[in-house]
Amino acid sequence: MKLHEYQAKQLLAKYNVPVPENYVAATGPEASAATEKLGGKSVVKAQVHAGGRGKAGGVKIANNPAEAAEFAESLIGTTLVTFQTGPQGAPIHKVLIEQTMEIARELYLSITTDGGRRLPVIIASAAGGMEIEEVAQNNPEEVFTEPVDPAVGFQPFQGRRLANQLNLPAAQVRPFSSLVDACYQAYMDLDCSMIEINPLVLTGDEKLLALDAKVSIDDDSLFRHKSESELRDTSQEEPLEVEASEAGIAYVKLDGNVGCMVNGAGLAMATMDTVKFAGAEPANFLDVGGGAAEEKISHAILLMLSDQNVEKVLVNIFGGILRCDIAARGIVDAYSKADRQPPLVVRMLGTNVDEGKQILSDSTLSATMVDTLEEAAAAIKG
Amino acid sequence: MSILVDQNTRLLVQGITGREGSFHAERCMSYGTNLVAGVTPGKGGEKFMDSVPVFNSVQDAVDETGANVALIFVPPPFASDAILEAADAELPLVVCITEGVPVKDSTMVMRYLKDKNTRLLGPNCPGLITPGTGTKIGIMPGNIHMAGKVGVVSRSGTLTYEAVDQLTKLGIGQSTCVGIGGDPVSGTTFLDVLDMFNQDPETEAIVMIGEIGGTKEQEAAAFIKQNIKKPVASLIVGQTAPAGRRMGHAGAVITGKAALASEKMQALKDAGCHVIATPAEIGSTVKAMITG
């Protein structure tokens, strides 16, 4: 689950991570009042779940309260298109009004979990304000990492080592180490999958401040983070994906016209690949999950059909936990309820496959039954 | 003629009285697995299927039955506790089927296991099966498997069934099939399983099925190039997935360039693997590899 910058900063501030003085505004007058409090100047930042806001015109410097109000009004209620949002953009409901400052240096700091090491790692670089992937690609020697042993937590010597690698002034070594430790505490307490501060700035008066902040929380941990769960802003997500996730279905909308419903993420990706190799385009990734019930299968198909781009449907079920007869009943139910019935190709294998095929052939559906992925590809093409 | 599990496996199922646990425990038994115990705290003394004793703790179950493999079906909030309990009872192999375990829990579990002699498979995996000895420790449909000499290792569940099905239909049997799971932090890796297949005298060829995301396949490719003496066929799925989107498996998200299917396929090709071009060609590629 992604958080907005203002939410991330509020959470990090609770852990004593230094952040610039800031206020959230949803209207022009609020932006103006906040800028007043900041001494008459401010930075107005659009709150969307995407990077690249600056280049897209989502971050503006206001020289007086009236200008802040004007910028806020020009942003709120519109959508911001950045290189991360796709062409539809992300809606702006709020702006962050933040103090301006003199910046001496821009650094990069993040924490994520490294699956190879199976440990949280701190990643830091003196090349702040840039895409870290690019820095890692072009100048790998400028990216420093410190794995953390979760049994003892982040250690001051690691903070000193990183500060040294970043060439921080001596007076900033301890504050930097404390800042990283605070981020690490937040990372672990809140079950984060990522905390990214880019840039972390050293101000003209030699203070470290988290100028931007991105926090994502592990979706699988939300059962124990009730208050953080409420920070979710579904307006930033694809509506069909929100509906799917609430139903426990893994769905990602794509641009093609072949709707794919599959059980299992790996097989779902294999099915998409098969569609593509057949010269067609998948309309979605859809993993209905393991022990799905008839209602869930039906819901998944109806959800997929509500994407108006879907002109053909390919169902690929390999029964294991999920039984084919249950899948078949779900398919029949969905097609009886749907307002349109695009051509259907069904491949079923595994647990209770004969019962499943019988249910489909007894129904009024005119499904094309196939046995192999090759046949599925041919049927989709044809 | 297998790795990890065989006729000496004595299975214990944690969460045996739950819906999923009881359904799959029964299926493991009917496939031929020697199911010796179940564990559900508070239900000790009951019998599963009128024959298998249920215990309150893993230690009790091990002491009474000599169980040596644990299979876990408990819900995500309690899964790490179940794994740690099995490791504390010094079980050499723990298989966690549970999907949705928080990454932090898996991280802490792996830290704890560092000093233990317990191997974890999963979480979020289908388990493993050795058809030749009728030993199924997991949720895969048993009847698609066939005893033989090809080892299968995969990050996915149903896609592993797909691979096995294609092999069996061409008369190619399997030594052991292992699903390592799709979570970002998990126990057994491709490298571990490849190494075991390499040393298993009865495994003559290997099928490895990977996905987009992370760099696990590249690490496997480097390992194959250095160490593996047997032919390896490999498929990477997600070749058509868009960048930056999570595809169900937490691991399957394309982030950096290294996570792309094309990069992984190239690394495997450079390591001398037989790269499987499309998911429909798993069986035929393996057949050509072992007969050609």
Detailed description of the structure:
The complex is a heterodimer of chains A (382) and B (292). Chain A has 382 residues and is of the alpha+beta class. Chain A is built from 13 helices and 18 strands. Chain A has three domains: 1-20 and 103-237, ATP-grasp fold, B domain (D-amino Acid Aminotransferase, Chain A, domain 1); 21-100, Dna Ligase, domain 1 (2-Layer Sandwich), CATH 3.30.1490; 238-381, Succinyl-CoA synthetase domains (Rossmann fold, 3-Layer(aba) Sandwich), CATH 3.40.50. In chain A, strands 7, 8, 9, 10, 11 and 12 form a six-stranded antiparallel beta sheet that branches. In chain A, strands 1-6-2-3 form a four-stranded antiparallel beta sheet, with helices on one face. Chain A has a four-stranded parallel beta sheet with strand order 14-16-17-18, with helices on both faces. In chain A, strand 7 and strand 8 form a beta hairpin. Chain A starts with a helix and ends with a helix. Chain B folds into two domains: 11-121, NAD(P)-binding Rossmann-like Domain (Rossmann fold), CATH 3.40.50.720; 140-291, Succinyl-CoA synthetase domains (Rossmann fold), CATH 3.40.50. Chain B has helices at residues 19-31, 58-65, 76-88, 103-113, 158-169, 190-199, 216-227, 261-270, 282-291; strands at 11-14, 35-39, 47-48, 52-55, 69-72, 93-96, 119-121, 127-130, 135-138, 147-154, 174-179, 205-211, 232-237, 274-275. The two termini of chain B are 23 Å apart. The mean pLDDT of chain B is 92. Classes of the chains: A alpha+beta (382), B alpha/beta (292).
Describe what is shown at a glance.
By secondary structure, chain A is of the alpha+beta class. Helices cover 35% and strands 25% of the residues of chain A. In chain A, strands 7, 8, 9, 10, 11 and 12 form a 6-stranded antiparallel β-sheet that branches. A 4-stranded antiparallel β-sheet of chain A has the order 1-6-2-3, covered by helices on one side.
